[in-house]
Amino acid sequence: MRLDVDAAMGRALELATAAQEWGDTPIGAVVLGPDGAVLAEAANEREKRGDPTAHAEVLALRAAAQVHGDGWRLTGCTLVVTLEPCTMCAGATVLSRVDRVVYGADDPKAGAAGSLWDVVRDRRLNHRPEVTAGVRAEESATLLRAFFRAQRGL
Ligand SMILES: [Zn+2]
């Protein structure tokens, strides 16, 4: 299946929605190959796995590397994620060598792709993916707001 960035974000939003079923914060990620084919997709599974590193981006990047055919390198690929990556995921994104990161909502409290830090475009690192922010951001933000509102029992 080949998707453009907007459609891939739509799929990531579906994955984010599903994460709520097992009590995880609604965040979803899709990795597109150089030709736009879907290599991998994942939702946040931190609660599901009891794993502090099981963020959607890390799970999707790992799965994509298993199928991409260039060892661990995801050169030419695009990571599409519903929320701005945290420091761990921004770091994993740089290490994976993806060409591009596309994200939805900004995360002013923990974002590491421009909000609190800018790990993905730090000139001290030898790989800097292109960043596109704000793709279908309102849909992602709405999903997150509703989730946290429900968690607070409001
Ligand atoms: Zn993360």
Automatic annotation (TrEMBL):
Does Signal count among this protein's keywords? no
EC number per UniProt: 3.5.4.33
Keywords recorded for this protein, A-Z? Hydrolase, Metal-binding, tRNA processing, Zinc
Query: Keyword 4Fe-4S, does the record have it?
Result: no
Residue spans making up a coiled coil are none
Query: Where does the record place the CMP/dCMP-type deaminase domain?
Result: 3-116
In which residues is Zn(2+) bound?
55, 86, 89
Q: Family per UniProt?
A: Belongs to the cytidine and deoxycytidylate deaminase family.
What is this protein's name? tRNA-specific adenosine deaminase
